[in-house]
Amino acid sequence: MSEGVSAGERAHFDALESLYAAAPINRLFASRLEVIGVGAARIHFEVDDRVYHAAGAAHGTIYFKMLDDAAFYAANTLVSDRFLLTTAFNLLLTRPVKAGPLVAEGRWVSGKRRVLVADARLIDAEGEEVARGTGTFMRSHIPLSSLPGYAK
């Protein structure tokens, strides 16, 4: 168990990781969620030529998916009863990405009640930042416990 994390928080984090793995969209990508602690999450992702645009680098949808997921799950670590919804997301793409491993590091920034803000940065295999983003997430009416994969 992570230092400073209660058993209840760890159960919530494990359930979020299971929820990510169970989402149908994630069958399309070689990716894995790692919840680090309250307000922090990582998405480990493998890029290959199946996600390239016509000029031979990863399409922007890959950047968005990873950054949104990392920020979303960082925010959802603070909400244990409801699924969050992305209401806005801003991207800054700074470098093209070729095949290889990437990590999106998400962290909660502010808000705990109805709206939460989180950001994420995308890091390549050399440790260089290739993109960053900030998202706004709102509590939905969907109980986490009702979703396939979220099991406490």
UniProtKB/TrEMBL annotation:
GO terms for molecular function: acyl-CoA hydrolase activity. Residues 56-131 form the Thioesterase domain. Keywords: Hydrolase. Coiled coil: none annotated. InterPro entries: HotDog_dom_sf (IPR029069), PAAI_dom (IPR003736), Thioestr_dom (IPR006683). The keyword Transferase does not apply. It comes from the Bacteria. Signal peptide: none annotated. The keyword Heme does not apply. This is PaaI family thioesterase. The lineage of its organism: Bacteria, Pseudomonadati, Pseudomonadota, Alphaproteobacteria, Sphingomonadales.
